Amino acid sequence: MRDNARDRLIVGLDVTGRNEAERLIECLGDTVVWYKIGYQLALSGGLPLVGELARAGKRVFLDLKLLDISNTVEKGVESALELGASMLTIHAYPHAMRAATAAAKGSDLTLLGVTVLTSLDEADLTATGYRLTIPELVALRVSQARDVGMGGVVAAVAEAAEIRKIVGPEMAVVTPGIRPTGSAHGDQKRVATPADALNAGASHLVVGRPIVAADDPKTAATAILAEMAEAN
Length: 232
Prior knowledge:
The protein has eleven helices and eight strands. With 232 residues, the protein is of the alpha/beta class. Strands 1-2-3-4-5-6-7-8 form an eight-stranded parallel β-barrel, surrounded by seven helices.
């Protein structure tokens, strides 16, 4: 982990508009290899950045959490391939994951099944109508993602160790909800430090506000990389 922290840190471009995103990317420079583009930026003119970043030698995690009828998911994955994304999220429903893997077959696109959002807790699942606990639902969705041939999953650090027991060492385990030591949790309910996440078995860490909202984003990113280097 110490040798390749830069290849495991994904900075969430959780900003509105490509101008703000471009300023952040320029500020971070060579410190960051991976960027996440989600709904906020994608729906405010940021989708062309996927290809532009890829051509500049960066990698893009396109976090759109696709979920629809199978044909629509398949076409969405095909469009993501054309954009040049390296990772793409799909809500971990079996039919959606099957459609996504069919569309991405033979490509280098890593498909990630979203298990349970890190902003949710047991009360949220109950209110939504789920009868399973978070660990039970995560285990079910991870097993299904493995069985249909997904490239990895997205889950909270709290579930990472158990996920590794299910998927083994090869699949990606991408963990959002990362907060440097001493930082505020914001709206995340299940969080962890960078070192804790890596020690639990995460392959990639998604960090947004602790870097994006920092007075000096490059310094903040460098500090997080240093914390990652402390992992066992």
